[in-house]
Request: fold
Amino acid sequence: MRFEKWIPAFAAMTVNGIFGPSMSLLCKQESRNCETIVFNQIEICYNSCMATQTSEKDLDLTEIINGVEVMGPSPFGKHQNISANIFRKIDRHIEKTRAGKVYYSPLDVILEEKQQKLQPDILFIRKENMSIFQDFIRGVPDMVCEIVSKGSHAKDTLTKKKVYEKFKVPEYWIVLPELETIEVLTIEGDAYELFSLAEGEGIVKSKVIEGLEIDVKDVFEDFSL
Reply:
């Protein structure tokens, strides 16, 4: 874990009484904005500007599609709620089956160096395929999911679909919030074919994640409540 990341964690633990008395000071050495934190008489100093820059780098939303850098917007709250609902359903299922691991964006999936670096909203990797999980995902995951946002319809349903199809990602979920629809596509030969569909109500099933079934009502619940 990077130094500038565990400082706030230490601060939080101190507030909760884990490390006992502490204090936080703001010092300016040579015009630098440098925060000094004292834990049990141990003084730690770090540059908050460096922490901000590192945080921005870590949260890089840039994708490379067909060799072109594409910067997507930060997702809206509804998008994140839907993503969280799907992630929880998959995660709970594979906790029981031990079939693999599920991850969420932002996490780079590098299908081809400097040509195809995508960040699907959710992805699943079988345990037999976990060798692709390195610093990033370097290889073909077993399932990817894209939640279509305003302005991303063509990118998700056409452009990225063609990329996933080219590299034969076994299963591709397309989630359409405005239509409360989930499409599950599976690779058959060299092309995707519709495997499961639910619109407004009903169950979608996965071919790759054996036994996984999700009621779309649990995905598109009323977030205003």
Q: What stands out?
A: Residues 1-57 have pLDDT under 50 and may be disordered. The CA atoms of residues 97 and 170 lie 19 Å apart. Helices lie at 3-15, 48-58, 77-97, 153-166, 216-219. DSSP finds five helices and 16 strands in the chain.
